[in-house]
Amino acid sequence: MNLSSLDDFDKAGEKAEDVKKLLLIDASGFIFRAFFAFPPLNAPDGTPVNAVYGFCNMLLRTLKKHPDWAIGVVFDSSRKTFRSEIYSEYKAHRPPAPEDLIPQFALIREASEAFGLPPIELEGWEADDLMASYAKEALKNGQPCKLISSDKDLMQLVRPGVELEDPMKQRIVGIPEVEKKFGVPPNLVTAAQSLIGDSTDNVPGVPGIGPKNAAQLIHEYGGLEEILAAAPEMKKSKRRDNLIEFAEQARISLKLVTLDEDAPLPVPISGLKHAEIKSEKLQAWLDRLGFTSLISKLCTGSVSSPNRAQSAVTKKEIPVENVEDEAEAEWGNYQLIEKEAQLLTLIEKIKISGKVGLWGQPLFQDRFIAGIGGIALAPEKGEAALILFPSEGEEVGDLLAEAPEMPLLPKEKILSLLNPIFTDHSILKIFYDRKEQNRLLKKAGFEVIEPSADVQLISYVQSMGEFSHKLEKMTERDLQKELSDYGDKADRQRQKRSLLEIKPEEALAYCGMRADAILRLWYILQPALRGKKALSFYEETDLPLSKVLEIVEDRGILVDKMELAKISKELTERMEVLSGKVFEAAGRSFTLGSPKQLGEVLFDELGLPAPKKTKTGAWSTDASILEELSDKGYAICSHILEWRQLDKLKNTYADALPKEINPETGRVHTNYQIALTSTGRFSSIAPNLQNIPIRSAEGARIRSAFIAPKGRKLISADYSQIELRLMAIVAEVEPLLEAFRLGQDIHARTASEVFNLPLEGMDPLVRRQAKAINFGIIYGISAFGLARQLQISNGEAKKYIEAYFTRYPGILDYMESTKDFAKEHAYVLTPFGRKCHIPEIQAKGPRRAGAERQAINAPLQGGAAEIMRRAMIAVEKRLSKSGLDGKMILQVHDELLFEASDADAEKVAQIAKEEMENVVNLPVKLEVETGIAQNWAAAH
Q1: Taking a C-beta distance cutoff of 8 angstroms, is the pair 381, 516 a contact?
Q2: Is the distance from CB of 579 to CB of 643 less than 8 angstroms?
Q3: CB within 8 Å of 344: residues ≥ 6 apart
Q4: Nearest C-alpha neighbor of 371 from the set 444, 278, 321
Q5: pLDDT recorded at residue 168
Q6: Domains in the chain and their CATH numbers?
Q7: What's the pLDDT score for residue 40?
Q8: For residue 451, is the peptide bond before it cis, meaning its omega torsion is within 30 degrees of 0?
Q9: Rounded to whole angstroms, how far apart are CA atoms 260 and 154?
Q10: Is DNA repair tagged as a keyword (predicted)?
């Protein structure tokens, strides 16, 4: 960006020495910070006002710090700006504002006016553009300008005469800070951003180029156009190829990130003035909202948080513990524990606090070398200490040969001093991802850590599906803080850097900030559990479940490496046959796994009906396109789809599973992600066992490699048609409910009801059609989708669906009412009352249609997930007390897998069936099918 020259600024300053300084406040930053920092508050009329109250607090504090400055409070007017016309996906994936925040936007604009500061906003421009334009005007006038915002996009404006203040860190961001952030001076920030891109705003950038690469290119070649012009002459590399291929994308990105310094000024700069904080108008407005404590602070200069005496504001008493202090607590008061006396002092602080944020850091990221490197403890917000652990084991020695020396207490001393704290039931231990952290600490020698809390689960249970629950994202969103990292990015990705290989101050900042953030997050999120009707889900289901899953993961499952090698060979042979058929149809060989080459063969050379090209200009060859072409009779596409399926099974399971075997246990230990999906379903990683095909022969072949040891058996316990049962219940479909009560074949009964046929002697083909409709309805299937699945015409499929809804009108009513509810609230409810958020329900086009299907299915899938969560807790509890030699070792979809001795297998199966079928009380009985065998496929 090219603001007025510094000479102009200096000359203007000579002529206008007495001109007021200009302060521009980014309102959005204040609003979201206030909303997440303050607990739920309500005005006398019941309107949520926590963000309004926090905004007033922060605005008043800022005004008192800047007496006699001219003030501008700048707002975003809407999401649609001129950038949306340049790039339709710009900010398109951002979730809608939280439900309780939406009615507060208008009140916050009223707040600004009450302070005598008319809201500055302009349709079609972002607040950043207006701030850039005012900054340019201020420079012309010789008027010093300060921007208050934590938005990194404003760093491009920093220069003499224009400074940026980060309200979170309470520090000025100058040219050195900008260069530290981007590696380039402010005038080249946009060039860097155009290369890096921005996932938050959906700025595409150039794939594979991060901050370091961008800075290097800029220092070597100059601005974006100079870099793109030089790209063809660069040394051949993936980076060079991407610069050439995505040049236009980079140019678009530059337009998106460059602020418009010529945006119209809604209020003339001469019209901006200082606020009126002692006016009768402001006091009357604060009184209307019930902000009585703020009124009393206006004259004293002290600004605090709402308290229990503020009964006009709170509907009911809300325990607010120094809310403002929590939001404003400084970061970085961290210490490295070098001596026993320091640790004893820390322990006393923890005892006084009664709670502690806790972060255990692995020595290495390699999960098979899971030794602990250090543990950070935060007894108060803004305070944390890091205790480094002595390294043990042969696997550590060579890797740490050149590690810098760090102060280390003896491991035995650390354990002896901290174990009493960790087992003290008067002290709450607060984790992020308690399951993984507890496993790490247990392996280090610590005893069972109780009582404990988990901020990841607290966040998830309140906002399932609404946004990411990764610690970094939670900290950015709820605390407006970016967590520090350490070491070189490439080294971290290769997992070669350990905690003890970095400088002590880096280790302290990395771990200390995480413990600090965890404690701060608990203060913000925990009080909201009850108000969001999520407390019982957290305390009775999710937190106990994390403890059950920790046990299940530790047990693991045995896999037959010889069988996997045999499966891999079989898959390879079948893939070779299929690739031969593809090459014969294509008339030449090519890399079948390359979408680019495949697109050229299918659409350029063979002339198949072509889909639209992707943004990069290549033909799309995703599964839906190939399936459509396969349905039209193009055999080559059928062969490719089958080849891809086999290739995935081979690479993901047959070849990869042996590498996942833990050398210490000889078993595979999957890692369950329980705070990820929008419905409460688990996902799993390392390895992902949720994606093994359920009904295909190939999937069964993979499952056959999961075995029980000699003298033991695997027991499968699988819920039968659980989502169909839930649909019959929530839609109150009496014929289906009756069929379930009578134990009838539900698909045959549906065929009989819909097609008016006798139940006895039902044609298997007609039953299959009814089955497709039953399961398809759950996922919002269209006539086109059903037609393709049953290989019938669209018209015939449409008639089937219409007949289905005619016979079962309750299902259609359920679907429509659920979509309407989702559109109004941006979430749906499971039958048990848990919220499943659907952020994209207000989107347009295909994303909106997908969100509507998700809304229909989420209560059913979420209900099934809730039943499974409760069942796992109940089964584990009963088995642990039974005295039987049997244990739960796996959960996949609606199925639990157990391992038991030959003698106890039948009894374990019976216990699993009883607990799973009776864990909830429903209008129809749940049914669980069990099987016992030597391998998973046979048991299933």
Answers
A1: yes
A2: yes
A3: 417
A4: 444
A5: 74
A6: 6-178+260-271 (3.40.50.1010), 338-532 (3.30.420.10)
A7: 75
A8: yes
A9: 11
A10: yes
